[in-house]
């Protein structure tokens, strides 16, 4: 469990509805979270963040001046806000809105209305994202691990790098797609490869197949991160030899547990 507590979090809630604000504020108060800041639109929220960077932003999808997707993408373009944890509470199910959110590294997507228990679980995921427990490996120290992260989205790579760094990993290489990753894999040894599925040039399934059948590191653990829901495609991914598949969004605890299971 994180060394942080809910009482220490600086939370900004972005919600145009006074009713929804009272409900969520009530949930957080019952959990022991101090008074949260409140913005009713995206521009006000961004101004509040610039004045005092929060630990966590909780937003609905549809705001008067932008969407929650627009808001998190604006945050990820700002050096001051790029690493701020972001949580969505929304009844939206349209992939047009949700896919960019998943790529931007949200820590949780909750239904609207959500229960207090659902919010509590997401809040503890936020704590773990902000200050996770370090990796505990039997035969190697986390700072000695050599990890390759493959994703065509700069923002997604940044989020995964941040998680790995918080777990104590220091040696991390990056590639924008499978084709670029192959050149890196053949030039240095890796203890772990974390890859996205949908990428141009060469996707994650093709990269995993190459690693298992043609590379000089055929036994390296490969973790795949994806928002793919097509069962046939996912079956093909599993057959390509990946060691584990994570849905976006995923939390630090999931990543830590998988690494410890595969490398201990």
UniProtKB/TrEMBL annotation:
Signal peptide stretch: none
Superkingdom of the source species: Bacteria
Biological-process GO terms, alphabetical: phosphorelay signal transduction system
UniProt xrefs under Gene3D superfamilies: 3.40.50.2300
Positions bearing 4-aspartylphosphate: 196
Pfam family, one: Response_reg
SMART domains referenced in this protein's UniProt entry, alphabetically: REC
Alphabetized PROSITE patterns for the sequence: RESPONSE_REGULATORY
UniProt-recorded name of the protein: Two-component system chemotaxis response regulator CheY
Annotated organism of origin: Thiogranum longum
Coiled-coil boundaries: none
Keywords tagged on the record: Phosphoprotein
SUPFAM superfamilies hit by this protein: CheY-like
Domain Response regulatory: 10-127, 146-263
């Amino acid at each position: 469990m994180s060394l942080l507590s809910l009482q220490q979090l600086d939370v900004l809630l972005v919600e145009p509805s006074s009713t929804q604000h009272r409900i969520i504020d009530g949930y957080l108060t019952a959990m022991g979270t101090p008074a949260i800041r409140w913005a009713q639109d995206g521009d006000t929220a961004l101004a509040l963040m610039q004045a005092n960077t929060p630990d966590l932003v909780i937003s609905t999808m549809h705001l008067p001046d932008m969407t929650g997707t627009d808001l998190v993408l604006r945050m990820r373009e700002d050096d001051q806000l790029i690493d701020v944890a972001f949580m969505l509470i929304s009844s939206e199910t349209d992939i047009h809105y949700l896919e960019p959110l998943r790529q931007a590294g949200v820590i949780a997507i909750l239904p609207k209305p959500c229960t207090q228990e659902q919010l509590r679980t997401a809040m503890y995921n936020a704590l773990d994202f902000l200050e996770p427990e370090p990796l505990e490996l039997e035969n190697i120290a986390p700072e000695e691990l050599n990890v390759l992260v493959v994703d065509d989205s700069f923002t997604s790579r940044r989020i995964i790098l941040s998680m790995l760094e918080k777990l104590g990993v220091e040696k991390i290489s990056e590639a924008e797609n499978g084709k670029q990753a192959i050149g890196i894999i053949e030039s240095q040894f890796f203890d772990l490869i974390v890859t996205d599925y949908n990428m141009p040039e060469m996707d994650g399934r093709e990269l995993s197949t190459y690693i298992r059948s043609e590379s000089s590191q055929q036994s390296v653990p490969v973790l795949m991160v994806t928002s793919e829901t097509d069962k046939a495609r996912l079956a093909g991914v599993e057959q390509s030899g990946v060691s584990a598949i994570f849905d976006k969004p995923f939390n630090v605890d999931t990543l830590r547990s998988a690494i410890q299971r595969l490398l201990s």
